[in-house]
Amino acid sequence: MMRISNHSRKRQRGGGEQKTAEYSSTLFQFFSNNSKCLQTLCLLTLCQVVLSAYHYHNVYKTTKTFSSFGSSSTSLQFASSGNSAIPKHHPSSPVNSALHVSFAASAAANARVESVAANPLNTYTNTDKDGTTTTTTTTTTILPEWNELSGAAQTELQQMLNWDKVSTFDYPEIFRLDELTQGHSLLFMSWAIVASPYSQPLLLSSSASQQEQQEQQDNEYCNLLDAFGISPTAFMDYVRTIEQGYQKNNPYHNHIHAADVLQTLHSMLQSESYRLTKVQHFSLLLASILHDVGHDGTNNDFQVQTQSQLAIRYQNVSVLEQHHVEVGLKELDSSELLDHLPLQQRDEIRQFIAQAILHTDMAKHQEQVERASQAASTPPPPPQDDDDDDDWQAAMYLLHLCDISNPTKSTFSIWTEHVLEEFYQLGDLQKSLGLPVSFDRSVANSNSKVSIQQGFLKFLVLPAFEAMEFSNPKIMQGLYANYEYWMKQDKEEDAETAAEAAGD
Ligand SMILES: [Zn+2]
């Protein structure tokens, strides 16, 4: 496991150290008492995750085991989820059926794009192994927003939403994506990842070389919608509704953050070889999409403090998280997306989604880190196909890491501005209500920003990520680089403060 050096971790900086600890204590309390995504503060995270290969079979087998949670498990086990009984196509989705027959079936047979016909974005000629040629028109009706974009925007989106790109851990284009899609970054990211068999053919650049096209076609996309017989059109309609449930005025807890968490989670599931059932995989991705829906820019502390309707409704426990679960699942029921599934499987998906979202409550952060650390120091037990509970615990921890992964990214500075602005807006609200102010913009300065960031990284994010092992070294490298950056900033400010004091 890659670890930061003791020298770096234990660097003594006199007053600065104490100051950081105080800030961190305040922050942790702030988040623990409620906030759900502590990401906000500094951003954070990383998730490492899981899964790897996807196949059309019910059982995914990969090689690496998740060294970790609890005493029994094992490997994130992609045990059979009984998908064989699930119809391939949603009964109300003729478009989906047509698409599946013409495209997905060919893909399963390792067909490849032979040529791009008249409309390079819509029509493909595939040749199966046996020489059978099928021309497919991958209608974009499942995402009409795509058709509304200019050609230049579509071309740029092909560069930032293709499979390789969305499977990369550090994704700096998230804000540009939101601009290009006119505020639909969550919708488009979900389309590119969860509905990948239906989106990636359109995202393959018409100028791509034959080799690049072949490589793209060799990718195994997330085929979860087909696995559960879910109409891609209905799924995108659901995500569109959820995206509207995010308050775009929130500087941080908005649809862009949800899109970022989804992309981070997906990339980690791609780079790390854990195993989950298809039900767990689908539920986890959905949880990332839903995990902050309905967030009002406050935090659990504020909800309890003001005795809000939500606090009363949820008895002061994980108030916002329970709200996100309720909103997300209520819309899921309204969408009838899962109505064709067996009741048991439908309930299983709902429960996994709820559990995963509730685990993003910062109040559970320390407990989760300690559990992960303990598991990492214990030799992994032999695989047990019939016990995937510990694997699911690990998967939920990964979602939590993704939620606080901003400090691992090259975009961390931008996220910092967003999260601090949300904190200060809450401070403004608290002040207007005569409540104690958690973050007061009137006394904020660059020093407090640096201290918040450094404390957040040092006491919350670093320990959380170091409790895991990642195959992708860029995850920890980004985190350490950002940590060193804030340490340096803090040191320079300490020196400036000392110089000013001497001048006085
Ligand atoms: Zn979040």
Largest sheet: 3 strands, antiparallel
Main CATH class:
Mainly Alpha
Number of helical regions: 24
Unreliable residue runs: 1-126
Quantity of strands, as a count: 3
Strand content: under 5%
- The structure class reads mainly alpha
Residue share in helix = 55-70%
Name the CATH homologous superfamily: 3'5'-cyclic nucleotide phosphodiesterase, catalytic domain
Q: Give the SSE order as H and E letters.
A: HHHHEEEHHHHHHHHHHHHHHHHHHHH
The termini sit apart by 48 Å
Bound molecules: zinc ion
Q: Name the overall outline.
A: globular
Q: Regarding quaternary structure, how should these chains be classified?
A: single chain
CATH A-level architecture: Orthogonal Bundle
Number of separate structural domains? 1
Radius of gyration: 23 Å
What is the typical, i.e. mean, pLDDT?
74
The CATH topology corresponds to: Catalytic domain of cyclic nucleotide phosphodiesterase 4b2b
**Spatial order of the strands forming the largest sheet:** 1-2-3
